[in-house]
UniProtKB/TrEMBL annotation:
Its cofactor is Zn(2+). This is DNA repair protein RAD50. Residues 6-235 form the Rad50/SbcC-type AAA domain. It is found in: Chromosome; Nucleus. Residues 596-644, 782-826 form a coiled coil.
Length: 1316
């Protein structure tokens, strides 16, 4: 058992950090006495800090440590040292160190708390020799290790043993706070969480087990499926080899036929190209002839040779190039001159702007000179300065005037300064006099207010004393009546004590308990006799059991036969009997197996037929899809071409339109040159003669530009660019024509596909689909037959299992019959005079007698307890009567004291009211003098303000005039210094020079433009001659091209090409049909091969992926499931055992605390019920207890509350008790909890707070009895009540106590005092 030995404190709260205060703990009690605020509670806080490391509430920031400001230093180090004996009686030392320092942050000072390294060591030299003396220095480890050494949990140290005064009433706190406290004390939370965790783990593992079982079942199914897949894969491999051989033979035949058809098609295509080439040459010859004829009509034919014409064309181009070069040079010179004019114009504009600004500056300068002279004349007249009222003032005169003006300003400033100094002194004198009078009045007003406040306070105190006096309603007759009541209670108490002695309840209980023991002994003898009889009774019971089980087995077999009789007759055709049930079923099963095998073979044949048709139908649909795609591509290509050609109806229409466009473009090219010459002549005549040669109408001057624009537009359209566009269009139409001719075979193929091949395939697919539907119905019927037979097979299998059960039951019944015969022979030699039932009946009668005696004993005990309770209540009533007499006597004395106090307060109040009236008169006498002084001060201030304003206005006017004159003079000076006149003249000269340069450059530009006109005229006349030379050269080239085209046409064999085309159209279609038929058969085989190959690959993939390592995984999962089942069962057993242990522990502890006489309770426990009966002196509460209501299912979590028994009614104590009852109940609950958890040291801080004298006396007596019952217990009591110390010393032997006080410096001191 652990005990406390000694405590040393330094630097805690009000304890000095320079000295150490020591307390030696005594056994059984240590008392600490001191007035409020002396530092008593700080001792308990230090013990709690040493044992748990917890500082008191609301002490963040260093409030627990001695303040550095009081200590007069920047840093304070505090220490708590506690010496104690641990559970093994080894002396230990625990040291806690903490430091607080103050730091200045801005204008304030902040405290910083720092926990230093602590110490836990062995302080016993004998023990320290064998093991390490220092156990730990880390604070976190100390917080855990010290409670372990004391043998008490941390929560009990915090809430029970060293509970802080602020938290001492926690048993009557709100429900949530109380639950947290009790859960911590009973350690309920830790074990509840452990049980919940076990259940959660078991639930999770159960869910996992369900999943694992499902996975195991799935793995078993997968294992069976993998075996089936391997068998199917082997069958499919054989079928694939057979079909692949046929596919290779077809491939060879198809390649031969395809090669022959390709050769035939290539020869036909070659002759088709010859025909197309001939048609192209014919078209080309026609176009050349048309173009040559057009050129012949529009040109003037020249006789020179081709070489001479080419030389003329080349030299003509050189001449034109030279003329164009000259024109470009002239244009560049004009651009350069125009750039020069633009630059000169920019300079001219800049100079004009500059001239305007300079002229404006000159005007401002002249106005500034005039304004300056006007200001000088005006100021001189205003100030009376002579000699400056004439025109044309010189600079020297102006400077002289400014000097005189500055002297006038300085004189005005000095006059204003002197006036302000004199007026300020005068105002200060009046102000001082005014303030003195106000100060005197304020002082008297303050005195009056203070006197008034004091009078009010005295009056309030007088009223309060009067009210208290009226409330005291006591006289001598009341005291006499109370004394009579006390005498009656004393008589009643003596009467009850005598009745309790006469009843002799203990002797009656002893007699009843003796009778109960005799009956128990007799019942034990009968029990032995019954055991002897039961030895043979066991054989009888076994015999009855064997016979009954044998009959049950036979009955179960008959029930099974009856239950399956109808199904049995259906499948065997005979009535069901137990003897032949299994034999006939075996015959039926063999017959049904043969029927199922035959039906399965028929189903497989039907299924193969359906698969063959599905494969053929798939190939036909693939061919149809391919043909449709080919048709769609051809139609899309033809439609896209037709859409590009303005949505033509057919390719033939496009060819016709393209041939027409080619002819038109060729005609236009031949006529463009003639039209261009015609428009050039119209333009020339229109410009020279103002007449349109085309229509003969005259052209006005204002119409000429529009005429020229129109004719030039036509010439440009017929120029080389226009001709190039026409040639480009001609080539495009030729390309369209060639593309259209290339699409003719594709259009024919599309027509064949749409009208012949696709309808034929659609018809074949329709026939195969109909046949497939028929075959599918047959296969479905065969499958239905198989399903029915299998269902019957399963029913027979179920009957077979029932037959096995019937055979097993019949065999078991026969075995039980033989065992019963053996038991009958064993019992034939035994006999008995009395049966077990008779002995059992006698034991029952004996038990009833024992229960009757126990009820009588309980009634006697209840009567005894009732009489004792009546005695206790009478004793409490007697004590209350004594208290009432003392209280009434005290109230009578208090009444006389209150009357005297009222008279004294009345005299004080009258004196204060007289002083208040006197001060009020003096304040009223000062008011006229203050008003007069204030008026005089205001008058002087007003007079001085007017004079100051006048002088300030004069000074301001002078200063303003001086500033204006100075600004004007500065503007005049800036213009002269900047040479304004000279800059204006230079600008005018530069403008004249720029005008001259502009005229010269414009004349040069006109000369260059005349030369450009001459060159343009020469170039225009040369274009017609060059066009004629080019047309002659083109005309001769077309003639040579026609000769080459004729030669190419003569080389082509058109007759042979026509014959080859007729042969292709008559034979190619039949050959193509043969090729398509072979391809169809090959595609059908290919589809079957791909299908079989895909099925083999799919099954192989399934075996490698879905069923990989299936046997290993199945075995592993089986082991996992069995292991999980065993582990879950272990978890369930462990959880239930732990839950039962927690419930039993909780019930045991609650019984200890409340003295509930349940299982586990024993005499000698210090309970709440016992402590309350010893201590509480009132009659309104019989007893108190802690109730724990179940919060959750399973009785593992509780809601706690403190209840009181009042007139046999249980009520919640919270909210229904007084402050004293709350303090007493909390103290007694802590005492009971400490004893229940085996803690033999306990601290009580101010236990008498709010308690009356009788209860304090009873508490002292109760603590004395507790210490007598627990002589090794250590109590630490902190109190300010010296009477309580006296009462304790009467109940307990106390030699000394500790007194806590404060010295002159306000620091706490602990002194050991002797009790006198």
């Amino acid at each position: 058992m652990a005990t406390l030995d000694k405590l040393a404190i330094r630097g805690i709260r009000s304890f000095d950090d320079k000295s150490v205060n020591i307390i030696q703990f005594q056994t059984p009690i240590t008392v600490i006495v001191g007035y409020n605020g002396s530092g008593k509670t700080s001792i308990l806080e230090s013990i709690l800090y040493a044992t748990t490391g917890d500082m008191p509430p609301n002490t963040k920031g260093g409030a627990f440590i001695h303040d550095p400001k009081i200590a007069g230093s920047k840093e304070v180090k505090a220490q708590v040292r506690l010496r104690f004996y641990n559970q093994s009686q080894t002396r230990m030392n625990v040291v806690r160190n903490v430091q607080v320092s103050q730091k200045k942050t801005g204008n304030s000072t902040a405290l910083t708390l720092k926990t230093l390294e602590g110490l836990l060591q062995v302080d016993d030299p004998e023990v320290a020799k064998n093991k390490r003396a220092t156990l730990s220095t880390k604070c976190a480890e100390l917080d855990e290790e010290v409670p372990n050494q004391l043998g008490v949990s941390r929560s009990i140290l915090q809430n029970v043993v060293f509970c802080h005064q602020e938290d001492s009433n926690w048993p009557l706190s709100e429900a949530s706070v109380l639950k947290k406290k009790f859960d911590d004390i009973f350690d309920a939370t830790k074990w509840t969480k452990a049980i919940d965790n076990i259940k959660v783990i078991r639930k999770e593992r159960t869910n996992d087990l369900k999943v694992s079982k499902a996975e195991l079942e799935a793995l078993k199914t997968d294992r069976d499926r993998s075996e089936q897949l391997k068998a199917k894969k082997a069958k499919l491999g054989d079928s694939l080899a057979e079909k692949y051989e046929r596919y290779e033979t077809l491939g060879t035949e198809i390649r031969r036929v395809t090669k022959e058809n390709k050769q035939f098609y290539d020869s036909a295509v070659k002759f088709r190209e010859i025909v197309n080439q001939a048609e192209t040459l014919e078209e080309k010859r026609r176009l050349h002839q048309q173009n040559r004829e057009s050129l012949r009509i529009s040109m003037t034919e020249l006789q020179e040779s081709d070489d001479e014409l080419q030389r003329r064309k080349d030299s003509f181009q050189d001449h034109l190039s030279r003329q164009r070069g000259r024109r470009d040079d002239f244009a560049k010179r004009i651009d350069k001159k125009r750039s020069e004019i633009e630059q000169i114009e920019r300079q001219y504009s800049t100079k004009l702007s500059e001239k305007g600004a300079l002229e404006s500056d000159k005007k401002h300068h002249e106005r500034a000179i005039s304004k300056r002279e006007e200001e000088v004349r005006a100021i001189s007249l205003e100030l009376g300065i002579r000699g400056f009222d004439v025109a044309g003032l010189s600079d020297a005169q102006i400077a002289d005037f400014k000097h005189r003006l500055d002297e006038s300003v300085r004189a005005a400033e000095n006059a204003l300064k002197d006036f302000r100094a004199k007026s300020g002194e005068k105002e200060q004198d009046f102000s001082n006099k005014y303030q003195e009078l106000r100060t005197e009045r304020s002082s008297k007003v303050s005195s009056r207010d203070t006197t008034s406040v004091n009078a009010k306070r005295i009056k309030e105190r007088m009223k309060q004393a009067t009210d208290e006096l009226e409330d005291v309603n006591i006289n001598e007759s009341d005291i006499s009546h109370a004394r009579e009541t006390l005498e009656d209670d004393e008589k009643k108490l003596r009467r009850i004590r005598k009745e309790l002695e006469d009843a002799n309840y203990d002797e009656q209980l002893s007699k009843k308990n003796g009778e109960i023991r005799q009956l128990d002994e007799r019942r034990e003898e009968l029990t032995l006799q019954l055991n002897e009889l039961n030895r043979y009774a066991e054989f009888r019971a076994k015999l009855d059991l064997k016979r009954r089980e044998s009959e049950e087995k036979k009955g179960a077999a008959d029930d099974l036969v009856k239950r399956h009789a109808a199904a049995y007759k259906t499948h065997t055709g005979q009535e069901a009997k137990v003897e032949s049930f299994d034999r006939l079923l075996t015959t039926s099963i063999s017959s049904k197996d043969r029927d199922v095998a035959a039906a399965e073979r028929e189903e497989a044949e039907k299924t193969r037929s359906v698969q063959h048709l599905e494969s053929a139908l798939s190939i036909a649909r693939g061919q149809l899809s391919s043909k449709r795609n080919q048709l769609s591509q051809l139609q899309t290509e033809v439609k896209a071409f037709l859409k590009d050609e303005d949505d033509a109806n057919s390719v033939d229409d496009v060819i016709t339109a393209a041939e027409e466009e080619v002819r038109i473009r060729s005609d236009e090219l031949s006529s463009d040159a003639q039209a261009q010459d015609f428009f050039q002549r119209i333009l020339k005549v229109g410009q020279s003669q103002h007449e349109c040669q085309g229509c003969g109408r005259g052209i006005k001057d204002n119409e000429l530009p529009a005429f020229e624009k129109y004719v030039l537009k036509k010439i440009n359209q017929l120029s080389a660019d226009g001709r190039k566009q026409n040639e480009q269009d001609l080539q495009e139409w030729k390309g369209v024509l060639a593309k259209a001719r290339g699409l003719l075979p594709k259009e024919a193929t599309a027509k064949t596909l749409q009208e012949v091949e696709i309808p034929k395939l659609e018809k074949e697919i329709e026939g195969q689909s109909a046949e497939l539907g028929k075959k599918s119905d047959e296969a479905e019927h065969a499958s239905s037959v198989v399903r029915d037979l299998r269902e019957q097979q399963q029913q027979i299998a179920a009957l077979k299992r029932a037959a096995q059960d019937i055979s097993r039951l019949v065999g078991e019944a026969e075995t039980l019959r033989k065992e019963a015969a053996t038991l009958e022979s064993d019992l034939s030699s035994s006999g008995s005079t009395q049966t077990g039932d008779q002995v059992q009946s006698a034991i029952g009668d004996m038990a009833d007698s024992i229960r009757t005696l126990k009820r009588e004993a309980n009634i006697i005990a209840a009567n005894r307890d009732s009489k004792r309770n009546e005695l206790n209540n009478t004793e409490r009533q007697f004590f209350r009567s004594q208290q009432a007499v003392a209280q009434k006597e005290q109230e009578l004395g208090r009444k006389a004291s209150l009357q005297k106090r009222v008279d004294e307060l009345k005299g004080e109040w009258e004196e204060l009211k007289e002083a208040e009236r006197r001060l009020e008169d003096e304040i009223e006498g000062l008011a006229p003098r203050i008003r007069k002084t204030k008026d005089e001060l205001e008058a002087v201030k007003e007079e001085h303000a007017r004079e100051d304003e006048k002088l300030s206005g004069e000074l301001s006017g002078l200063q303003s005039k001086a500033r204006e004159l100075q600004e004007t003079s500065d503007r005049v000076k800036r213009y002269i210094d900047g040479r304004g006149e000279q800059r204006l003249q230079d600008c005018i000269d530069k403008i004249k020079d720029l005008q001259s340069q502009t005229s010269s450059v414009q004349a040069e530009i006109k000369e260059i433009e005349a030369q450009i006109s001459t060159v343009d005229k020469d170039l225009n006349e040369s274009n017609a001659t060059e066009r004629n030379i080019l047309d002659n050269l083109h005309y001769r080239q077309l003639g040579r091209d026609l000769l080459h085209i004729e030669e190419d046409l003569n080389k082509l064999d058109l007759d042979a090409a026509s014959k080859a085309r007729r042969d292709f159209e008559s034979k190619y279609h039949d050959q193509k049909q043969i090729e398509n038929s072979l391809n169809g058969e090959a595609q059908h085989l290919s589809g079957e091969i791909k299908s079989l190959d895909e099925q083999i690959r799919t099954r192989d993939e399934e075996l490698k992926t879905d069923y990989k390592d299936i046997h290993t995984r199945f075995s592993k999962k089986l082991v996992e499931v069995k292991t999980s089942e065993l582990a879950n069962a272990d978890l369930e057993r462990y959880g239930k055992a732990l839950e039962q242990s927690v419930l039993k522990y909780h019930g045991y502890k609650m019984a200890e605390v409340n003295e509930s006489r349940v299982e586990g309770w024993r005499e000698g426990w210090i309970s709440i019920r016992l402590l309350w009966a010893r201590t509480y002196q009132g009659s309104d509460i019989d007893s108190i207890s802690i109730e724990s209501d179940n919060e959750k299912v399973g009785n593992r979590s509780y809601n706690y509350r403190v209840t009181m028994m009042k007139d046999n009614v249980k009520l919640d104590m919270r909210g229904r008790c007084s402050a004293g009852q709350k303090v007493l109940a909390s103290t007694l609950i802590r005492l009971a909890l400490a004893d229940s958890f085996g803690c033999r040291f306990l601290a009580l801080d101010e236990p008498t707070l709010c308690l009356d004298h009788e209860t304090v006396s009873a508490l002292a007596s109760s603590l004395g009895e507790l210490i007598k019952e627990r002589p090794k217990m250590q109590l630490l009591i902190v109190t300010h009540d010296s009477d309580f110390l006296s009462m304790l010393s009467q109940s307990i032997h106390i030699d000394s106590y500790y007194r806590v006080s404060r010295d002159n410096a306000g620091k706490s001191l602990v002194e050991k005092m002797r009790i006198r």
